[in-house]
Structure formats: structure tokens, C-alpha cells
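Field reference: sequence -> structure
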Amino acid sequence: MTPPPSPSRTAGTPSIPALVRTRVRAAVRRPARLTREEAEERALLLRLCSLLVQYPDAELTAARSVLTASVEALPASPAAEHLAAFTAWFAGQEPDALERHYVETFDLRRRSSLYLTYYLHGDTRRRGMALLALAQRYRAAGWDTDGSELPDHLPVVLEFAALAGPGGGEAPLRQHRRGLELIHRALTDADSPYRHVLAALLTLLPPATEADLAEVARLAAEGPPNEEVGLDPYGAYGDGEFAPPGTFVPPVSAPPTRVPPAPTTRTEGPR
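Structure field:
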């Protein structure tokens, strides 16, 4: 059976090229209400973040010019500035170098894993319940994913936010804000250009509170909760990571969201 289209290509949802000329409102705080135009503008930013933080396979790297043009069309804002810094780096790298950097950054470092429920629940049974709750949220909103990726994978969560809107759609991002802050901190410490994508995303969420920052500092030092899963204590390594490089291998990444090619003379019909 053919899997359902991703949210970015769902009928009725504007594609990136269709929105590149709209004015994007990069709000620091989530507005209480958005007009239809504002909702589409915000969805574009979330969709761009989702695309840019996905595994850079051949299709995604081939679409770099489209992504760069989309970012360049954004009005001046902190989010647009961060995304422009990332796409400038992204467009100038060799594909194999991009793939290596992605794997080393997100697959081999637990501290910058893109699986959000890990930061809140760690390797405990509560994480399974959190994953189930996310999957149920998606189904309740009418989005049936193809199951190729866990529901807490950041690109998936971002796609849902872009599709469902700033209320219920962005609720998982707000719930996992501390995890996002920790990922951003880890990427900054590693001097990874992906820090710009996380920074852009964080501009769309409510500012971190003192309690948030204190918890992020604790997580960075101690790691998330642990349970009877056979892992060594986090504190045994003392290197700022939750585990030595190479010991954490998340599930295989989902195929990236498909990006439409540049407009041609043909009428184009929807990762």
C-alpha cells in the first residue's frame, strides 16, 4: 500500500514554492490567534525547519537550491537569519560530507538525538506511553503516518506542527521545549551548523524560564531518567555526553520530506 503523503504535500496545504513570497511572522511568543495568512506563514517556517533537520539523502541535497531560495525569500527576522546561515553552509558541502556530519551529530551522540521523548522520559517505560500518546494525537488530527519513523522524531513533530497549527499542532514542541534547548546547546558546543535550525525553531516557542534552564543544565550533567535497560550510569563518563560515541544507535531515520523541484514548463502534480 502506498503510504499517505507527508503533511507538507497534503492536498490543501501550500507547498514551499507557493509560499516563498509570503511574509513570515517569526513571533517570539505564540500568538493567541492567527489569521489564515499568519498561520500559513508560520507553517512555512516550521516546514523549512523540518526539511533542514532531516537526513540529507540524494533527494534532499538535490533540492538545496529550492530550499536556499525559499529561505532567502523570507523577510528579515531572527529565524530567517539562522536558517540563512544554515543553508549557506548546507549548499556548499559535498553530499558525502553532509551525510557523515549528520550521522556523527545525530545518530552517534545521545545528547543531540532528535527523539524528543528521550529527554523527558529517558530509557524508561514512560517513554513508551509518551510515544503512544503522540501517535494517538496524530491520528486524532487526521494524520496517519506511514510508521517508518517514531512519532517523537523532531522532523515528524515539526511536520505535524506545520499541518495542525499553533494550538494542538505545536503542543508537542512546547511540551518538549527543554529537550529542544538541550539539543541546541549540544549542537552549539559541537559547533555544528545545525544549531542554526534549532535556534530558528526556538524563536517560535515561548522563551525558556529559569526553571527550564535549570533543568537543561541538570540534564546536560546527569542525563534523562534511566531504568532497567542495561545501560551504564550516565555519570560514569564525565565527558558532557550521556554515553560514549557509538553506543547509541536510534532507529533508522525516515525518508526526508519530499521537496517539489523548481518550477518547469510542465504542470507538476505530492517526503
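Note: The CA atoms of residues 19 and 44 lie 7 Å apart.
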